[in-house]
Automatic annotation (TrEMBL):
Active site per UniProt: 95 (charge relay system), 137 (charge relay system)
Name of the protein: Flavohemoprotein
A GO biological process held by the record: cellular response to nitrosative stress
Gene source species: Deinococcus arboris
Chain positions recorded as FAD binding sites: 190, 206-209, 397-400
Amino acid sequence: MLTDRQLEIVKATVPALQAHGAAITRVFYTSLFEAHPELLNIFNPVNQASGRQADTLAVSILAYAAHIDRLEQLGGMVGQIAHKHVSLEVLPEHYPIVGQHLLSAIAAVLGDAATPEILEAWGAAYGQLADIMIGVEGSMKRAGAEQPGGWAGFKPFVVTGKTTESQVITSFELTPQDGQPLPPFQPGQYLSLQVQVPGRPTRQIRQYSLTALPNGQTYRISVKRERAASAELPHGLISTHLHEELNMGDQVLVHLPAGEFVLQDSNRPVVLLSGGVGITPMISLLDHLVAKNPTRPVLFVHAALNREVHAFHDHVNAVTAAHSQVQKQIYYTEVGIHDQLGVDYDIAGLIRRNTISPLLPEGDAEYYYCGPAGFTHAVESLLDDLKVPTDRRFTETFGPSRTFTLLAADRAPAQAHELAATGR
Ligand SMILES: NC(=O)C1=CN([C@@H]2O[C@H](COP(=O)(O)OP(=O)(O)OC[C@H]3O[C@@H](n4cnc5c(N)ncnc54)[C@H](O)[C@@H]3O)[C@@H](O)[C@H]2O)C=CC1
């Protein structure tokens, strides 16, 4: 428990961390991985090299410090991080290691400004956050392992299907090697795979959206083959390995499904907006909606470069044709010479208010969106224009989230119960 003085100190140091937060976390990761190279396996090296992981930690720490006297408002952030941590097998014993390196990094970057009293206050604050996270993650792990068909950690699965969805996206059907029935999951969630690429020192863990509904026997994920941006940024190492080397009959290690990008329990109309590979979680959401809520209007909007990279084209057409509750609108930005307007796509160009507006369902629709950063920003300004309140917007970020700054009071009330329930 922090003293009042420590609470004051932590809040007062937010501006200093704001100024130096990214530098602190960069120093932190460097010293952490020097001392504990084994922890590299749970971090995507691309996110390390690009600084994205460091930025995410900095944003999370700042959000935490800013809310230190109103922790119930951090429920959304805690839930998102806990899902990621559980699926990455972050363990309670990792927290003191991280705490030690974080405090040393704060001391190193802030220099004399980091007095013993400040460091002690941050030590206490970090300890409190660690206790919250360990509590939430522990209950999630227990619930996962104890459910029928559940398991702890990673379990061997076999590839029983491999389907090309587009020039860049491939689906893998995975069946548990032990033949046990599989627990259900919520549409919109993802699976973690642990993969050993030959020649690399550690196994790597990656998350991929589930793209078929729960059936008790198999899971299906869909993976975009990422391209290397440069030799220093080994982007696409795992996805290329999966596309090229993971074949029928091969084994892969799989963690229980996780993730909080799931449908709200409501009957509101739904707008699903995806860009590129952001279509993957939308496929499960769409399939679930038509199977379970036949009266709920759904608008499916997808933006792709062109037909060659447009995954699930036929599937979405078939669902739209079979269910009058669904309307769709497809945007292509780099229309191919064989692409047909009205057949393959509806609009050439980027998603825009005047083109989407005529199709928007009446009433207080919920908006679910996922896509590359530019797409996400475009959708967010569209939703701002349409005055859609934040409690009807839901998004998924692949990789470390940059959205924690959005968490605050207006996004978190429902999830605050989660935090309260952990008895922090
Ligand atoms: N939520 C997330 O974190 C997601 C991240 N990504 C990342 O983004 C990268 C690119 O994904 P791809 O599937 O190759 O997408 P892409 O580059 O093929 O773009 C798909 C579509 O998104 C739209 N879009 C892109 N930039 C836009 C902008 N500035 N304004 C408005 N619309 C825009 C365009 O309509 C484009 O056709 C991936 O490598 C992936 O790592 C992709 C999807 C989801």
